[in-house]
Write a structure and sequence with these properties.
single chain; 174 residues; mainly alpha
Amino acid sequence: QPMPTAEQAAFAQRSWDLHVSATLQDAVEQQQELAELSRLLDCYGDAIDARDHDGTTALHSAAVSGRGAAIALFLERGATVNMQSNLQETALHFSAREGHLTATRLLVASRAEVQATTKDGATPLDYARRSQNREWAAVASLLEASKEPPQPQEESSLRTTTLCDSATAFARVP
């Protein structure tokens, strides 16, 4: 019995995504020149977030390899910085686990979710601390500093300002 048209289209799309993902990830892992990566993206750019069987993308591969220039190129070309693997790992999880400081900086600067959690509830900071690879301590410090939200003013000082402004405004009324 022939496959329904919708299933054929989904199968063809998944096959294409696997091909693109394998091609881009192989290029990253073989440390091909940026010009070659750029040429591949010219061909496959619409599928820059193509995922392999594990759900990882070329950006994940660049992060695990610490290839900062490749990460920058992928992000410039529209890769999704917070794309998750099947285990909900982001590229930031991978760069943190491997202790790649430059890669981690690039991802954080590109608004990677510093508090993203995997299926097991692990953050990129957890990965850095567990693995202790390369520059893990500097990566951990960067992630710690990046997760702290801006400190809001104390509520009491806001209340005082509001009360003072109201009192001043009231005093001016004839």
